[in-house]
Amino acid sequence: MADLTQNKKDLAHARTKTSFDVASMTNYLYRGSGNVEQRRYIIDLIAREPIFNKDDWAWLNHTDAVKRGIAMSARLAEIKMENDLNDLDFATMVEAIDDTLPILLHNGAFIPVINAQGTDEQIDKWIPLAEKFQIIGCYAQTELGHGSNLSSLETTATFIKETDEWEIDSTTFTAAKWWIGGLGAMCTHAVVQAKLIIDGTDHGAHVFVVPIRSLEDHKPFSGIQVGDIGPKAYGGFNKMENGFARFNKYRIPRENMLMRFSKVSRDGVFTKPPHAKLSYGSMVLLRSVLIRQMALYLSRATTIATRYLTVRRQFNNPTQRNDADMNPGLETQVINYPMVQNRLFPLIASAYALFAAGSVMMDMYIGLLTDLSSGNIGALAEVHAMSSALKSYCTTIGAAGAEECRKLMGGHGYSYFTGLAHMFASIVPSNTYEGDNYVLTQQMARYLLKEVKTAKTEPEKVTPYSKYLLLATNRDAFSRATCAVVQPEDWLKPEVQLAAFEHRCARLAMELSDAVEAGGGLDDTNGKTWSDHNIECYRISHAHAQYVMVLWFIRSIRNAQNPDLDDEERTDPKAIQVLQKLSNLHALHTIQTNLADFAEDAYLSPRQCPSLRAQVKDVVASLADDAVGLVDAFDHPDFLLASALGASDGDAYKRLWDKAQTEPLNRKDVCDGYEEYIRPLLKKHGEIKL
Amino acid sequence: MADLTQNKKDLAHARTKTSFDVASMTNYLYRGSGNVEQRRYIIDLIAREPIFNKDDWAWLNHTDAVKRGIAMSARLAEIKMENDLNDLDFATMVEAIDDTLPILLHNGAFIPVINAQGTDEQIDKWIPLAEKFQIIGCYAQTELGHGSNLSSLETTATFIKETDEWEIDSTTFTAAKWWIGGLGAMCTHAVVQAKLIIDGTDHGAHVFVVPIRSLEDHKPFSGIQVGDIGPKAYGGFNKMENGFARFNKYRIPRENMLMRFSKVSRDGVFTKPPHAKLSYGSMVLLRSVLIRQMALYLSRATTIATRYLTVRRQFNNPTQRNDADMNPGLETQVINYPMVQNRLFPLIASAYALFAAGSVMMDMYIGLLTDLSSGNIGALAEVHAMSSALKSYCTTIGAAGAEECRKLMGGHGYSYFTGLAHMFASIVPSNTYEGDNYVLTQQMARYLLKEVKTAKTEPEKVTPYSKYLLLATNRDAFSRATCAVVQPEDWLKPEVQLAAFEHRCARLAMELSDAVEAGGGLDDTNGKTWSDHNIECYRISHAHAQYVMVLWFIRSIRNAQNPDLDDEERTDPKAIQVLQKLSNLHALHTIQTNLADFAEDAYLSPRQCPSLRAQVKDVVASLADDAVGLVDAFDHPDFLLASALGASDGDAYKRLWDKAQTEPLNRKDVCDGYEEYIRPLLKKHGEIKL
Questions:
Q1: Contacts by B86-95 with C-beta closer than 8 Å and gap 24+?
Q2: Which of the residues B57, B215, B336, B514 could staple to B320 if both were Cys, CB 3.0 to 4.6 A apart?
Q3: Environment class of residue B550 by beta-carbon count within 10 Å: exposed (0-12), middle (13-18) or buried (19+)?
Q4: Chain A partners within 8 Å of B339 (Cβ)
Q5: Which GO terms describe its biological process (chains A, B) (predicted)?
Q6: Exposed/middle/buried for A115, CB within 10 Å: 0-12, 13-18, 19+?
Q7: How does pLDDT run across A676-689, given as a tens digit for each residue?
Q8: Beta strand A177-180 with A243-247: parallel, antiparallel or unpaired?
Q9: What's the mean pLDDT in A222-241?
Q10: How far is B376 from chain A (nearest CA, A)?
């Protein structure tokens, strides 16, 4: 008979094998114990409120889910006001709630856009109302017919001089605003992107504050057709009422145009903004936040998978030994199979690398913000390209990693109760929004092409992260470059790893540059065009993202060893050792996964490739005893995981059994539909006796 | 103002560019016009019945969905009886219905298992009742605590000599049957796998027919706790009541054990079966069917994506020209971007290759069946290994391909109304069921290790698909082997492509064999064990699957050109030309995706790798005019696609708009929750006037 306490014993026992101080590791990840404490405090604030209970989510249809989303939104707003919470704490509340709510774009876009693009008077008018939720806003850009291509939006705002108003109009349904979170049911106002038209002249897309629903009774104003666009893939965004809106010659006052940059005077004179790219800052922020989110998501996914695979036992493999103090008759813990470790542990390493990348990217954004506020746009191009490349790469591996964790969990992985299905459904749209992950890679490629030119003409001006381009200055020597690995252990040297990534980036960038020039340059419309090079843009952009991810993870570990740090800030030396293993795994596994890029030009030799694969296996095996400790260090409470299989006590089977007992279908002995459908079928050919 | 007929014009215009006869291509895919006609007839049979309408699926919660599933099941059973349909037609009905129903395992497992493992008397007793749906069955193998490892199932069937009965028992909840489709609400009977115990001796897992619910009132019998296990990931299998069951010393008659192979006499004497592997046939069938299903799924997914991307326009790219007769002011059709073509067209090629593979695999199964029925098990090992390798590979690329199609559709791809979200949710569990896709690859690896031994000792006995192993007989010569490509066009030679796949398979198989021997062989429990080699098993198994997929597709096209065929059976020569392009794309793109495997041992040179990439781009570009024709040839009617964006008329935006208008939330002007949550929030700080 199965020992029903075995699951808990297995997880508890795995914890005893951890080689490092888990709390110290947590402090490293969240950059200090103060942040760890604050995060715990905020998550607990949410966990205590019944409205945020997640137990019945799986059974809500879209109608019920949106109503729940509205209730949760209102409470979220109240908690923010009651506790006077800042943006960071708000983000942590949203992390704890773990679903997209109708109100998210109010703080996430409506307020920031007005703050960024409104005049001081406009900010004074709208922001206090928004901060007190006396109005609720959303951000309406995408249309049914246009997403990426802003300049072809069809919604128009025509200046009506007689009444000093804008007439907002959607000529056809393809001009309908579409996908707008918060618009379907909850918002009272929207910031709307529309083509500004004066006297028949189109001045391009601008933003307008548009009242949508009456503050008296919440009914949409006459002249606006508004609603929910319907359910999303995989049950994702179920509580969000992504909406549509069509405007029929709908009038708003002239001053509802946000006029910090472009302006329109009372008599209809249009003034252009001083610099077209000043609004890029908010894109950089949104993309930087996504990288951090991927760290949080993938760390949750690996937490769930690691714990479940530690307690799940299947087959008795005599040499994948159970521990000495375990009953030898027990089957093997699934996490002890090398195949499982080689799929799972690189994802744990990725999660750690994502934490490091998220921190650096956020620091870069804050630096940029400081620059921009003093009118210095020198760093804008690089930071914008970097945030684009990383957004594309990190959200790709985030979504794929969460799904891989689910598959690692085998049959039970297909249950909703893993907690991972909900997660993938929430992550995967990030591969498309805030810039499609393929289209977005053109940003870094364009940036690097400029850097290639700089490398040729003014090598000292190449920015730090593009310095690898200088490797290729001597083309002959570069084409003969090979990897320095002689002994297998050489793979563990950070400089060897970084050299490989730099070589690959330099080669791909030069190949792209050569191809573009051979096609007559980017401006030659008779030759090859930019879009002919987009496959190569994707390759170099992801290669660059992988390079900086590896670099930043290595640096982050070095920084954690800084002898100048206070005792309290210093990371446990044993934790550092494990971090170094993770960093090696992250670097080497990334090379292995993209091996052709390193081998096809003979940079790696036929001897080095198998030695790389062997090193990856060795590093993976060396992490086995620390796997549970490493995911515990992510510090995700059970409320956040919302997983029957990944809870901290390891009692997976019991929790899965208990969850099934809560299934509404099980309230009845005989199912709905028996009398109507089953019985007539069974009795069609008469009664039988068995 | 946007031309609302443009979508339809675009798709219609694309069709005019097709270079081949679409009907002839359809006949090639379905192996003859008779099959095409029959498939259309059966799909129409389903499409005509209101109960199978898919319009409201997105809004059903699990409770309502299961009731719908039961209603659909009953009607499906009736249609089968009314029209006296065979298994193939039944499969087509299920394809048309496009969801898993509570009744599917009745025909899919309950009946086949009784037919395969029951005595003639047992077949005579149960099958007529089942064929007339006087009983409804399911198949209960997996338990909460055990999936893959059959020998550790915990459910017991203990022989009670006194009463000539079996006592079925689940000692703990980990012994509960779990994931059993049809068990949660609908079935009256289950075929249950349980450990057979006589006088304290455990004779291993055997199958028993177990009454679950009363034929009088459908109530579960006393001694059985039964219910639904809860919702599944991504909203998949929503109409299926995957169930659990726990037995508490539940008695059934001795003759309910299926006794074709093992037997137990009245006085409790157990007799073993003559051959342990005779039951493998049904596994081969299920896996072979899955390959065919992946062809159908991926062809649907590419149909939807290709049509939508043909009508979707975004940005105006001057040299990705619109056709001459189009308005030059129009934006570029998204399908004209090379990046999009290079992601989409390889998936179309994969779908075609899957059709070929599905046919060959099914023929192999039928051949095996004939062999087995005459007691010849000679082919069993190879066919079993092949079906395992292909199931693992094909369901992996099927699920990933459907998801890639969804992502290709950009923002709107995240709408439920693409039809692709439902599809991925239905496909992806196939990566785990019928053998986890990682675990399953061990079958082909084990088979090939035996073939390596045969190649060394009796080379003439190596089976045809493993003949590549003979390449490596001379290890020295083999290690110096290189790819024969000199001119880029050489990549288009099938013999060059096949040689590359053969070389790679031979290398990986020899490396695995060497590693296993170096570890002391598989039986040495002191050395490396089998599970240490499982990563390499996965590599060689997928490599082998890719090799036969490429080979079978090439052969299938050659067969279609057989001069002995009747006019009616012969495929249009222009269709053959396009098939050859698809075959080239399939082979070369597969090499490109796995390039490291071909380059890391220097089989491919640093010159050949870029020429391969260039060839892939060229072949992709050469297929642009035929993309819509190629997916039209899959012959999937709109009812089956159930997609607002992929319908045959191209009217994507209009359909998406119309679908949104059917969203239940939109029936009200003011949303549920306004009075309760939104109004109090808005008014918390008093009334405002704007």
A1: B89/B38, B89/B42, B91/B289, B92/B38, B92/B39, B92/B42, B92/B43, B93/B42, B93/B45, B93/B46, B95/B43, B95/B293, B95/B296, B95/B640
A2: B336
A3: buried
A4: 438, 531, 534-535, 538
A5: fatty acid beta-oxidation using acyl-CoA oxidase; lipid homeostasis
A6: middle
A7: 999 999 999 999 98
A8: antiparallel
A9: 97
A10: 31
Residues with Cβ within 8 Å of residue B678, at least 6 apart in sequence? A70, A74, A136, A186, A218, B671
Compute the average pLDDT of residues B28-43: 97
Q: Does B556 touch chain A (CB under 8 A)?
A: no
The Cα B153–Cα B173 span in angstroms is 12
Nearest CA in chain A to B603: A606
At which residue do the structure tokens 């208990």 appear? A658
- Across the A:B interface, residue pairs with CB atoms under 8 Å apart total 422
Task: Please tell me whether residue B196 adopts helix, strand or coil conformation.
Answer: strand
Every domain of chain B and the residues it spans? 111-274, 281-632
**Does A631 have pLDDT greater than 70?**
yes
Is A522 in the B-facing interface, judged by CB distances under 8 Å?
no
Partner A contacted by B204 (CB < 8 A): no
The pLDDT assigned to B523 comes to 65
Q: Which long-range contacts (CB under 8 A, 24 or more apart) does B80-84 make?
A: B80/B107, B81/A684, B81/B132, B81/B133, B83/B45
Handedness of CA B438, B440, B443, B444 (dihedral sign): negative
DSSP A205-232: EEEEEEE-B-TTT-PBPTTEEEEE---B
Name the DSSP letter for residue B662: T
Return the percentage of chain B with pLDDT > 90, whole number: 88
Per this entry, what is the length of chain A?
690
Q: Give contacts of B228 with chain A, Cβ < 8 Å.
A: 660, 663, 665-666
CB B444 within 8 A of CB B389: yes
In a mutational test of the B interface, the residue from A136, A343, A665 whose CB has the highest number of chain B CBs within 10 Å is A665
State the Cα–Cα distance between residues B14 and B23, nearest whole angstrom.
Answer: 17
Q: CB distance from B400 to chain A under 8 Å?
A: no
* pLDDT value, residue A328: 72
- Comparing B607 with B171, the larger pLDDT belongs to B607
**Of the candidates B332, B329, B314, B392, the residue with the CA atom closest to the CA atom of residue B357:** B392
Structure-derived torsion over alpha carbons of residues A306, A397, A20, A611, reported in degrees to the nearest 10: 100
A95: tokens are 């992390």
pLDDT value for B373: 80
In the structure, what pLDDT confidence band is assigned to residue B637 with cuts at 50, 70 and 90?
Answer: very high
Give how far B564 is from chain A: nearest CA, Å. 44
A243 bridge partner residues: A180, A228
d(CA A219, CA A469): 59
CB contact under 8 A, B677 and A318: no
Q: Which secondary structure element, helix H or strand E, spans residue B533, and what is its range?
A: none
Q: Provide the sign of the torsion angle of the four alpha carbons A485, A490, A491, A495, taken in this order.
A: negative
Q: If you measure CA to CA, which chain A residue comes closest to B511?
A: A610
Round to whole Å and give the CA distance between A494 and A17. 27
Q: How far apart are CA A71 and CA A75, in angstroms?
A: 6
* DSSP per residue, A294-355: HHHHHHHHHHHHHHHHHH-B-S--TTSPPPTTS-TTSPPBGGGSHHHHHHHHHHHHHHHHHH
Sign (positive or negative) of CA dihedral A140, A146, A148, A152: negative
- Pair A303, A636: CB distance under 8 Å: yes
CB contact under 8 Å between A67 and B672, yes or no, is yes
The CATH class for the domain spanning A281-632 reads: mainly alpha
Domain A111-274 has CATH 3.40.50.720: no
Of the CA atoms within 13 Å of residue B564, those in its CB half-sphere come to 2
Put simply, the chain B residues between 588 and 607 with a CB less than 8 A from any chain A CB are 595-596, 599-602, 604, 606
Q: Do A653 and B211 touch (CB under 8 A)?
A: no
What SS3 class is residue B249?
coil
